[in-house]
Amino acid sequence: MPTPAHEAQTDAPVVTRFGSGNETYALLVWRRFRRSPMGMIGLVLVSLMLVVSIFADFFAPLDPKQANLPFAPPDVIAFEDPDGNFSLIPYVYPIGDTGEFDPVTFQPLTGLIKDNPTPTGFFVTGYEYKFLWLIPSNIHFFGSVDGRPIQLLGTDKFGRDILSRGIVGSRISLMIALAVVTLTTVVGTLVGITSGYIGGRVDSWVQRFVDFVLAFPQLPLYLALTSLIPVTAPSNVFLTFVIFVMAVLGWAQLSREVRSKTLSLARIEYVRAAIAVGATDGRIITRHILPNVLSHIIVAITLAIPGVVLLESFLGFLGFAVKPPLISWGLMLQDTGTFSVIGSYPWILSPVIFVLITVFAFNALGDGLRDAIDPY
Predict the structure, then answer these.
(1) Tens digit of pLDDT for each residue in 272-318?
(2) Is 208 exposed, middle or buried (0-12, 13-18, 19+ CB in 10 A)?
(3) Number of H helices, E strands in the chain
(4) By three-state DSSP, how is residue 258 classified?
(5) How far apart are CA 210 and CA 184, in angstroms?
(6) Using CA atoms, how far apart are residues 367 and 300, in angstroms rounded to an integer?
(7) What is the largest CA-CA distance in the chain?
(8) Which of 90, 188, 210, 350 could bond to 251 as cystine, CB 3.0-4.6 Å?
């Protein structure tokens, strides 16, 4: 008959310094990833950007196509009422002529106009849109209570709200980046694994073609190919062609990296054992090689998206990426083409903030994933 002490010993849980011993590879990666502060910041920012881009009309305070005062300066949010007392409800104060003059230069002074501020709130009514492209709605996350426009980042040369255009433009910019990276990842992975696994003369010919693609100067080729689409072409056709051009010129580098990984994995013992027992090439690639290459592909995706965002912004600034009436961050940067506009209206550079946040978020996420997937 077991003694109580023996029962206590058998019933006590076994705790080891390494945690639970039945953890999957995904849980181990997640546990290492949580220890990276920059990786977690990147994950939060990327998640927020995806949510904002999907529900862009809900988060945009104004209609991105509505024209108001051109080159209007950004409004100021202050937690004080017109009497100067603290208020939990923020007010928007426009910047304008105060009626006073500089005592030295006699130039008119600008400042906050506190005569008639705009009260703000959450879940207010605004312009009508279709929630998830299906449900008619006019509720917005943030805006003015009385319906007056608030322009936290100012307006462009046509009087359109820059903040609303930047939020709505995130759809096109991120959609281009995700579509291009998806195509380049699929093509580059298939070509790289096939070339590295088959080897021999097939590998030699495929790599010469990859060298041929990598030898092209990409920027002049981007400009040449995108200029083939006529100006009168529909926006969807032009956007599809731009995505196709970026994908055609972007898959070669990833295929070279995947090929080098495949060459090393094809010589490992368990792959040779699978060949010896008669496993098919498709099973060896999908069950043995691809899972071991997948970690590198995931990191490459997170690090390739910022490059595509920067490329789209640059091509959009030159007028070769997105055409109106579509909105993208690169297209918004066309207003900064002259130094006089930047000097007089510096808030026109606000779309750069969206690009910088996106690049930082995906780079931080990629660095955290790289350290978590391959800590050694």
Answers:
(1) 888 888 878 788 888 888 888 888 888 889 889 998 998 888 888 87
(2) exposed
(3) 15, 6
(4) helix
(5) 13
(6) 10
(7) 102
(8) 188
